[in-house]
Every structure is written in C-alpha cells, then in structure tokens.
Amino acid sequence: GLGYQLMHGKKLPEAIEVFKLSVEMFPNSYNTYDSLAEAYMDNGDRNLATQNYQKSLQLKPGNTNATEMLKKLNSK
Predict the structure, then answer these.
(1) Is 44 left (phi over 0), alpha (psi -120 to 50) or beta?
(2) Nearest by Cα to 38 from 3, 63, 76, 75
(3) Residue 29 φ/ψ region, left for φ over 0, alpha for ψ in the -120 to 50 degree band, beta for the rest
(4) Sign of the Cα pseudo-torsion (52, 56, 62, 63, in order)
(5) 57: number of CA atoms within 13 Å, CB side?
(6) Which sign does the torsion angle of CA 34, 40, 43, 46 carry?
(7) Where are the alpha helices (DSSP H) in 1-76?
(8) Is the separation of the CB atoms in 33 and 51 below 8 Å?
(9) pLDDT 10s per residue in the chain (76 long)?
(10) Cβ contact 22:2 at 8 Å
C-alpha cells in the first residue's frame, strides 16, 4: 500500500525503493514484480519495467496485466 500511496503522490523514486524492498522480501510473489514494473513504467524506465513484467509473468504465466503492459511497452 505504501508504494502506491507514494506513486499517487508523484513520488516515484521513493515508490520504486519501496517496491524493490518488497521484491527482496517476497521474491516469489508475481505481484511484487508487477508493482515494481508499474512504478518503473510510470517513471519512464521502459527497460526495467519490461524486465519486471517479464519476471512477474514468469512467476504467474496467467498474469493478464503483465501481458497487456508488455504489449503496451513493446508498441512504443
């Protein structure tokens, strides 16, 4: 929740750090990578967003959000 509060407050670098910590604490959770990817995407870092959406998809192949976001990132 804190990461998204920071994102909504336009504090993307801080949100990214929170999500990175979440990934470290829960490395097998597809959702942590999905959230980190979203923060990177909002921050304009397409490469890191792509990497984290791919990791999320690796952990949960049925993650439709990651699939859609990767399509969006690859179409730019």
Answers:
(1) left
(2) 3
(3) beta
(4) negative
(5) 15
(6) negative
(7) 2-8, 12-25, 30-42, 46-59, 64-74
(8) no
(9) 899 999 999 999 999 999 999 999 999 999 999 999 999 999 999 999 999 999 999 999 999 999 999 999 988 6
(10) no
